[in-house]
Amino acid sequence: MSSGTDDSHRHRAETLREAMAGDTAITEVVLRTAVAARAAGGPPIAEPYDDLARRIGDASYQVTDAEVDAVPQATGSDKAAFEIVMSACVGAGLARWDAAARVIAEATDAPA
Prior knowledge:
Strand content: under 5%
Helix content: over 70%
Number of helices: 5
Structural class: mainly alpha
Number of domains: 1
Radius of gyration: 16 Å
Mean pLDDT: 88
Order of helices and strands: HHHHH
Distance between the termini: 8 Å
Largest sheet: none
Number of strands: 0
Shape: globular
Low-confidence stretches: none
């Protein structure tokens, strides 16, 4: 992978990270970043977000309807619930991206 492509990918990951933690959403930044961190293996957070975020990070195919249904009840709207679910997805995805980038950077036969 060329350095230019690698820099572009890093930039896109950072742009996604910043957008997820931005202030244009209806849910609190603190909640979205906590959900993203939990999905990435971070510390437990309040229910109903904890189980959902953890499961999205570990095995999203096992997410239950009850876990998803609890979120709009807690947030008060479907849009807010969508932001929470997307934050968990972004957190899990970026955790995998970060892990892959570290492996590539550590490989002796691949450019950083």
